Amino acid sequence: MIRTVPCNLDGFLDRLNSRSILSDEEQRQILDLPVRVKHAVPNEDFVSLGQQVEHSCFVLDGLVGRFDQNARGDRQITALHISGDMADLHSVVQPRATSALQALSTSTILEIPYPALRALASSYPAIAEAFWRDCTVDSMVLAQWVVNVGRRDGPARIAHLLCELACRYGAKMTNGAVTFMLPMTQIQLADAVGLTSVHVNRCLKVLEDAETTFRKHTVRIKDWDALADLGEFDRDYLQCDQRPDERIRLVQ
Amino acid sequence: MIRTVPCNLDGFLDRLNSRSILSDEEQRQILDLPVRVKHAVPNEDFVSLGQQVEHSCFVLDGLVGRFDQNARGDRQITALHISGDMADLHSVVQPRATSALQALSTSTILEIPYPALRALASSYPAIAEAFWRDCTVDSMVLAQWVVNVGRRDGPARIAHLLCELACRYGAKMTNGAVTFMLPMTQIQLADAVGLTSVHVNRCLKVLEDAETTFRKHTVRIKDWDALADLGEFDRDYLQCDQRPDERIRLVQ
DNA sequence: CGGGCCGTTGACACAAATCAATGTCCGTGG
DNA sequence: CCACGGACATTGATTTGTGTCAACGGCCCG
To answer: Is B136 close to A94, i.e. CB distance below 8 A?
Structure first.
């Protein structure tokens, strides 16, 4: 079976366009960025802590996590990046890596060299602005993660994360039900919500009372409102349903 | 007693200069930004959730927190801003406020209108870049907060936060000891580390075994290494001792 | 002098971690 | 095709950290 794998930055451009206003020329420049395709296998850092990196990582396909850990070695995921995300755009202006990047499932990464990104950000202020805005949204997600691990119990943490991911994946809702693929294990889920995998397993049973299941890499939410309620989820912060005419362009 | 209160953006410029390279002209432009002085009293939002804001808030003096809360009303601070910080620079490109801002102690805020900030970011790409970089550092701090509340126990959470703040305040170390003013209550500290104030009180007693005390708004760390060890603190992520020649300037 | 906020302490309840064992699934190699 | 191994999921028993509730004390400020 022959399958053509898309190897370009269409997804990156789509992401930028959803929040920022770019001219045709600027959009073309984005798509013309040089990339190197790389395949990342699960449970193996493809960007290590302290490593001297010279490129940003675009997630073409798969699921990527930003990993930190405490002194005991307990891992904590501080960000999840789905396909279409730039995992470390911020490093363009601040290259000292402070977290590792690791694929949660087999993933395809497009490495984009810093020099190219920097040249673009430097020559096209509107592109720099779009990059900055993209980082800002990541930061808002991060703030919600602090609330999640700081002030919610196990079931609520998981419910909130599942809602967040459903929105970011753009999963379709039909009759108040949502289903989407989530290629991660309960162990990884535990690392994202600051619990142990044993407890995550028990919490998932609680979520089944709200008719939400997570089995075989598939999340099935039968009653979105019930889950959002349990996870205290309010999608506003994701800025994912911003209207095109609400977008801002500072430059020009 | 007559006291002249400094009402300008010197501190903001210092902060930007410490991480970014700006020309004389660009520096002048920063200092010429229009400001409106505002005094914020403790425990009262000066930026509310969902409020239509038209300015960023520079903390001239005092201590400011970014507040979120869960459905039960339990509060979670997602960022602390000390004097010299811009509390919501990110809102320049993404103005939908997703958190409230509140002073923890009586504070002096300089409100800087978006139009002025945007005009500057638009006309001077290097300034936009410096703003972006500043937001990036905030984001790294936030990621560490996720690790803190997600994977450390009470005493370690508090130890880590105290170490972070000591570094950000630039507190002087003498003989391995550090002392600095921290104008917040145990209740507010609890909101920052995701614990209850009762438990924070008990954890502070544990820290006294490591010869660190927090009384009357003063943090006294007798043995920095012991506290850093307990809080698993590694100052690298703060980017606060970056050498001037390590600074990056993309533009030009 | 009095009131209120904050800090402190104790008894108790509960959520989550820990430890340990077993079950299930899936890919691999014999 | 089946046996094996390994990663992941599941379950129970127990411990531990933290929350909850309640009371009291100190301190500042009006």
So the answer is: yes
Beta bridge partners of B174: B177
Strand, coil or helix: B82: strand
Minimal CA–CA distance to B146: which of A204, A72, A141?
A: A141
Which helix (H) or strand (E) segment holds residue A125: the answer is: helix A125-151
Q: How far is the CA of B191 from the C1' of D1 (A)?
A: 61
Cβ–Cβ gap B143/A94 under 8 Å: no
B149's enclosing H/E stretch is helix B125-151
The label of the residue with tokens 């991060």 reads: A142
Structure tokens, B189: 């500290």
The pTM (predicted TM-score) of the whole model is: 0.95
- The pairing of strands B173-174 and B45-47 is unpaired
**Which pairing describes strands B177-181 and B173-174: parallel, antiparallel, or unpaired?**
antiparallel
- For chain B, which ranges sit under pLDDT 70? 1-7
Closest alpha carbon to A138 in A73, A56, A61: A56
Tokens representing residue B119 in the block: 């005009």
Task: Give the tens place of pLDDT for each residue, B89-120.
Answer: 999 999 887 899 999 999 999 999 999 999 99
**A245 alpha-carbon distance from chain centroid:** 24
Furthest-apart CA pair in chain B: how many Å?
54
Chain B touched by A71 (CB under 8 Å): yes
Residues A12, A114: Cα–Cα separation, whole Å: 16
Q: A150 and B149: CB-CB below 8 Å? A: yes
Query: What DSSP assignment string belongs to B111-123?
Result: EEEHHHHHHHHHH
C-beta separation of A91 from A97 below 8 A: yes
**Distance (Å, whole) CA A79 – CA A139:** 10
Rg (CA), chain A: 18
Residue type, A186: Q
Within 8 A by CB and 6+ apart from A230, the residues are A155, A156, A159, A207, A210
DSSP B234: -
Task: Find the CB nearest B145 among A146, A152, A250.
Answer: A146
- Report A:145-204 residues touching B (Cβ under 8 A): 145-147, 149-152, 156, 193-194
pLDDT for the residue numbered B134: 97
**Amino acid at site B189:** L
Q: For residue B75, give the DSSP letter.
A: E
